[in-house]
Design brief:
Layout (H helix, E strand, L loop, with lengths): L1 H22 L6 E3 L2 E3 L9 E4 L6 E4 L3 E6 L5 E3 L11 E5 L11 H10 L3 E2 L2 H9 L26 H6 L9 H4 L34 E3 L7 E2 L16 E2 L11 E3 L1 E2 L1
Parallel strand pairs: 9-12
Antiparallel strand pairs: 1-2, 3-4, 5-6, 5-7, 8-13, 9-10, 10-11
The structure holds calcium ion.
Amino acid sequence: MRAVAVKQSVSAGVIVSGLLAVMSLGAAPVTTGARTISAPKGCSAGMAPIPTDSGGFCIDRYEGSLVEVLAGGKTRTHPFYAEVDGKKVRAVSKRGRKPQAYISQVEAKAACEAAGKRLCSNEEWTKACQGKKPTKYPYGDVEVPGRCNGDGTRLHPIAELFGAGPAPFGDPRKMNDPRIDQLPNTIDKSGARTKCTNSYGVYDMVGNVHEWTDDPGGTFKGGYFMDTHRNGDGCNYTTVAHGTSYHDYSTGFRCCK
Ligand SMILES: [Ca+2]
């Protein structure tokens, strides 16, 4: 019975997706047995619709980058390697931009809200990462080296800048040094790894930068360019060691709506 239920669920997801392609906006709910799976209506540019049995949600296709909002409402690009440091910023989901790192959950939440969005819940984030037919990695259950930016084969950038040993990892100033993510072979532009995606068309959920969720206890998910296994494999990678004001060269975000 369980296998049948799963098959129905996946089938409904395909139907909803097909309707979306035709209609652009939303779709009539699809009922499978006791469950009704429906897609969200009107996901904005740069977001993907994720159908669920509670109405669905939208998620940014790309890791978040930032623009600074200036007096008078004009904006300018905020450097991905610079801390937010009290600036008024707004989240952007755009292919080809290096995603923001050095950002806390508190700052990421404000940036999403300034864009009319919010941080994703842990459950939303994981569902979007695993794809329509849930898999350990966005593209399948078996890891393909190099498909996402998480192999960690380069010398650790902290060791490159500050030498070996554990001490730099406990030093917030060193962990937020803007030079780190400007080193070669650290973070990629969003969407640059064209096969690091899934059946929803969402990119870089595993690797590149960690992504804050809305967990009030402080959680970020997916791993980063040096590691996608230590705290769980792929979409299950979950870091709970840091509070909501913490940030370093590896912490980024993505918004939902
Ligand atoms: Ca990521």
